Amino acid sequence: MQLKQTPEYVKLIPGCPGGPRNGRYAPLDPDYAAIKEGTEAVMAGLWKADDWETFRNNWKATPPLPEGTPQPGSDVTESYVNIPTRDGAEIELKIMQSAKHPKSAATAANTVVVMRLHGGGWAIGGHNTEAVENLHAAAHPNVVLVSVDYRLAPEHAFPIPFHDCVDALKWVKANAASQLHANPEKIVLLGGSAGSGLSLAVALKAREENISGIVAMALDWPTGSHPKFFKQLRDKYGYELESYIQVPEGTVAGVLIMEFFLDAYTPNAQPDPYHSPLLAETFAGLPQAFLQIAGFDPLRDEGLAVAEKLQRDGVPTEVHIYPGLPHFFSALLPDLAQTKKYQARQNAFIDKVVKAANAQ
Questions:
Q1: Fewer CB near the last or first residue (10 Å), C or N of the chain?
Q2: Which one-letter DSSP state was computed for residue 25?
Q3: What is the model's pTM?
Q4: Could you count the other beta carbons within 10 Å of the beta carbon of residue 27?
Q5: Cβ atoms 256, 244 nearer than 8 A
Q6: 227 CB contacts (<8 Å, ≥6 apart)?
Q7: One pLDDT digit (tens) per residue for the chain, 360 residues
């Protein structure tokens, strides 16, 4: 796939140290530094494609599951359903749940829906993008995981993927009790990268339309804003937003790669909090949030700005930063000690939310 020669939305400054608050998170983690060259060679191979179908297929391979991951079939059951969208199309939902704790009408009240919105720059990816995380969440005895296969850019640019995710939320609300044997008032949004930005946007839309039931958001390396709007966000709120310049050639997501995906999803982007949630006037009233952020990542400062805005607006927020590690390292480097910590923290947060929701 062809990238731009130079960035369009940010001006690069060679050797930029980053902002005074967040720049310290970029220096490479020693464990990652030792394997960085080989990892980047693998990533470069995935970009060798002349068309979108080939490009997407390059990213579909599911790596071997790390030791300790719940197994499909023996630990987690999987099924699929197609649901209608507002424009007459259909999208697929993948439903995952514990094979050892079958759900029924009798267990519905205490069963939480974890709604997965996958990463992939709004243009690639699907149900298996965060396969390991999904299996861990779905194996929880009180969880049904619903993965949303929203339509992809550039064929389906903004707002279609966002609308698909909102339509999926409404389907979950309407069918949680009858089809999922779950509680429609106990929903967790789980998103990675582009999926985190979509999760934030869905939460904003639910607040606007008074759609109840979202009790928490788990957001990994979230997208917060199109870089066209960084300056006004800096001027208004004081966010640093320097990581695009400090980490222009990140392993998975570099500046030119991000602009490639942004141009596919939001060509000629205009200010809109449903693709750039940091533009929302306030995050007040959103559900509690859990963020995991990589330090050697162009998206780092967007994630930290999201956390800052959530905290400033009174939303209970838990933040974990992984210095010196690249975007999406949890899937890229499954055997890294920090990946195991990342997964354990996500599991603990989901368990905490489930217990709190069922204690009321």
A1: C
A2: G
A3: 0.97
A4: 14
A5: no
A6: 9, 10, 241, 244, 258, 259, 262
A7: 899 999 999 999 999 999 999 999 999 999 999 999 999 999 999 999 999 999 999 998 877 899 999 999 999 999 999 999 999 999 999 999 999 999 999 999 999 999 999 999 999 999 999 999 999 999 999 999 999 999 999 999 999 999 999 999 999 999 999 999 999 999 999 999 999 999 999 999 999 999 999 999 999 999 999 999 999 999 999 999 999 999 999 989 999 999 999 999 999 999 999 999 999 999 999 999 999 999 999 999 999 999 999 999 999 999 999 999 999 999 999 989 999 999 999 999 999 999 999 997
Sheet with 90-98, strands from edge to edge, namely 76-84, 90-98, 143-149, 112-117, 187-192, 214-220, 288-296, 317-326
The first and second tokens of residue 214, run together, are 């979202």
8 A C-beta contact, residue 351 and residue 140: yes
Q: Which CATH superfamily is domain 38-359 in?
A: Alpha/Beta hydrolase fold, catalytic domain (3.40.50.1820)
**Which residue shows structure tokens 């999803």?**
265
User: What are the domain boundaries of the chain?
Assistant: 38-359
The H or E element that residue 287 is part of is: none
Alpha helices for 145-211 (secondary structure H): 160-175, 194-209
